[in-house]
Amino acid sequence: xxxxxxxxxxxxxxxxxxxxxxxxxxxxxxxxxxxxxxxxxxxxxxxxxxxxxxxxxxxxxxxxxxxxxxxxxxxxxxxxxxxxxxxxxxxxxxxxxxxxxxxxxxxxxxxxxxxxxxxxxxxxxxxxxxxxxxxxxxxxxxxxx
Length: 145
Hints:
Pfam families: DUF3737. InterPro entries: DUF3737, Pectin_lyase_fold/virulence. This is DUF3737 family protein. The chain is mainly β. The chain has one domain (about 35-145). About 0% of the residues lie in helices and about 50% in strands. It has strands at about 10, 15-20, 25-30, 35-40, 45-50, 55, 65-70, 70-75, 85-95, 105-110, 110-115, 120-125, 130, 140-145. The strands form two sheets. Strands 1, 2, 3, 4, 5, 6, 7, 8, 9, 10, 12 and 14 form a twelve-stranded parallel beta sheet that branches. A two-stranded parallel ribbon has the order 11-13.
């Protein structure tokens, strides 16, 4: 399913199972949704997801100004190559190689398996299995609470 919204504020409540959902979507809000998808929110811009469950691989790559609030997130390699990513009080389950080459402000409420090459910003997390910084551009901060 591809949905494109321009120049308006759209609010959706969705139960979705599929692939490549909401790629290129602009200016949207989702509340109390269940997404079971692969490659969701790629290249999205100005999107907010609240009180939702998001399951899937490669979540939100190349997004700009994506905000997730009080969500449960699972799947491999989420949030890579993102700009202006905000994660507020979200749980991340079975997530690895998160945030690669991304600009992030995050408060995560659960253990994260691995975080890789955070370019900038701060991630607060109670516990991380592995932190990988293997490129010189990765200058983000990970604070273990």
